[in-house]
Records
---
Amino acid sequence: MRIIVFAPHPDDEIFGCGGSILKWMDEGHDLHVIYVTDNRVLISWGRSHDVLLEEEAKEYINLDEDEIGKIALEEALQVAKSFGFPKENIHLFKFHDQDAKNRIPDGVKLAKPIIKDTNRIILPSDNNNHADHQATHTIAKRAAEELRLQGVEFYVYALYNILKAPKEKHLKIKIIDYRNQLYELMKGYKTQLCLKDTRIGWQLLKKKRTERFGVFSYEDMNKFENF
């Protein structure tokens, strides 16, 4: 099975569906990951919202956004490699962090050749209060619509909002066997671990037991809160 994972930012693949990625890889599926943005405003955003850990961020404090974005994408490439993604299955859109909403047509154009022969698309939820996550959802869904991917499964994960879907649309995947591996993989995102909330989430990976998805079909599009 060919599975495409959309990550709005480097590290969203870990927190949104990382254990499932590892499970699907163990099952022998062909997995691809798309990193939509470059995390370039990570340090400035963290400082302006008083969530930056100054000691952990000291080597990045004086770098400009271009430099931060370059480092963040290098981290993403290395983490994806550590996950087990082949080099040719790692896709970087390189959109500026916090600007994906202005690049939706470009994202659709880039996504279509990647998803055209896929069986399952993993994407962040609709009605998302994070602009980059919402834009990523729109990109993935619009690309699927333009290609009329009627036989594809859509696995929606919820970050920054609650998964709202009928019980029959919910799926839990047990990831207990993978949580320590996820914890180690997250160490590769040194820039992300400069933020208080991300560091807390990193520790919680050790206790994570399941990942939840809303599972939808092409015909379900625009009929549910999250899809």
Note: The CA atoms of residues 123 and 156 lie 5 Å apart.
---
Amino acid sequence: MRQRSRIILLAVTTAVVLAGALVVLLDRPATRSPAGASSAAAAARAVAENAQASTGFDGALLPRRVGTPDFTLTDQDGRRVSLGQYRGRVTILTFLSTTCHPTCQLIAQQIRGALDEMSAHPTRANPVPVLIVSANPSADTPAAVRRFLGEAALSGRVEYLTGTLSELRAVWRTYGIVPSGLGDAESPHAAAVLLIDREGQKRDLFQVEQLTPEGLVHDIRKLEGRG
């Protein structure tokens, strides 16, 4: 009996040890995974920070000689507005929809913050022009646009442009916009805010995750030669 008890005890002890070892082995990927993901995220941030440090811009600096084709659309007050009429001034251009939640509201608020900061600056009595091109003309009715701009405190401060579907399609195609994706925060077009320099060239691009009023103001001033 004693011999049998010792054999049973040894078997139980061995099973416990093996089970513990198995738990440790199975747990290793789970404990290492967050660290690996964290390291990858940190590396990505470092690359972005290095790129910004090398260019001096907070947004993604685009190559020179990338022109912006002109277009003419109708603003929220019924006036015809052309991109070309702002040649000689740094201009903000973005594509939004009044039904794009919450990404478009966030972009509008960040732009409003930049305009507020520039208006408060003693040498900036006239903030930069802002052109918002509709990405959803069926939803962007005059009433919806007025409500959207009012909620963002942008009434009278920006041009919210719309037009016929054929007019807008021509602009979307020229600027590589996919309207159906604008309601999705994951869409690369949902977050794009473009800065156009005085010569009418695309120079600076902000995605939503990097868009801040301070960053916009910083890059606008650099394009104006003030930074």
Note: The chain has two domains: 1-55, 60-223.
---
Amino acid sequence: MVDHAVEYVRGQVHTNGLENFWSLVKRELKGTYISVEPFHLFRYLDEQMFRYNNRRDEEGEPLKDADRFALLCSQVAGRRLTWNEVTGKNAVVD
């Protein structure tokens, strides 16, 4: 924990990374996704977490968009998202 009234950094503990993350989330929600339903907010946050956590490769080099897309595809294979999950509606079967 860092008390900003006393100090801003204590060893490796600081809030800059978290402040950077939320700045990117707010920019994404206000600029890219103009209308966000509260029901889907966790999905937008998951997307931003994926982008933030996969900015660099193991050697510390920035990931290219193609590499990030390949990583995403490897993690989505075999998973299914149904229309009812996306819309939050229950399926009505006659």
Note: Residues 16-81 form one domain.
---
Amino acid sequence: MLTGGRRNPAYSGYYYEPTVLVDVNHSMDIMREETFGPVLPIQVVRDEEEALRLANDTRFGLNANVWTRDRHKGKQIANQLNSGSVVVDDCMVSYAITESPFGGVKESGIGRVNGEIGLKSYCHLQSVALGRFATKREFFWYPYNAKKLRLVRRLVDFLYRSRFGKLLGN
């Protein structure tokens, strides 16, 4: 641990000091569970490929950060992370004041807040289908009889065997 790791003695209650942890690995709970606290675990990885594999190897996906000197590379890495949102080279972006939708994936939530998609998440969709004709009964519904059968055969012949049907491409 580099710093923190205890309740802040200056405050009563559950105020935990910002904590930086080193020498962590992917098997530790701190790397596999959501903390929602001021904790920064640092794990040394072999390369970018391993970093992406480990970052995506979780059942959570609320938010991610990418830190790099190359902004273009940061965006490429961000696009490969399975997370509801990714911030590149910043940690103080406030979703409450932006139009950017915010929400998680996997077990970190469903849906979004903010922006047009967030507003639409408060809507309930309803499909309404209206009958084509205002009849008491559809023509093709049961009961069937010989007259209906003759009419259907004539309609099929007209649509599929006549010159008109061939003009339609049937």
Note: The chain has a mean pLDDT of 85.
